[in-house]
Design a protein that fits this description.
Layout (H helix, E strand, L loop, with lengths): L14 H22 L4 H27 L9
Helix pairs in contact: 1-2
Length: about 80
């Protein structure tokens, strides 16, 4: 069983890291919209489901980053 290290989460050279950051930021923005803007019921459900899906995908990407071994740096 491999140990997970939180330090593996920060991998700026890995595109999954940037996708995770973007999805989590978008989820936070969508949650703010649902909470602070007057929306009808349908719009609130659509935006809320979209925010929840973004959060789940971002969490899955975070899990992959923490579990996987980081790629070794390429020699230059």
């Amino acid at each position: 069983m491999t140990a997970m290290k939180l330090s593996r989460l920060i991998q700026p050279r890995n595109p999954l890291f940037w996708m995770m950051l973007a999805l989590n930021a978008l989820s936070a923005a969508l949650a703010w919209i649902v909470h602070n803007r007057p929306l009808n019921t349908f719009a609130m459900i659509v935006v809320g489901v979209f925010a929840l899906c973004n959060a789940l995908i971002g969490t899955w990407l975070m899990w992959r980053l923490v579990r996987d071994e980081p790629e070794p740096p390429k020699p230059s």
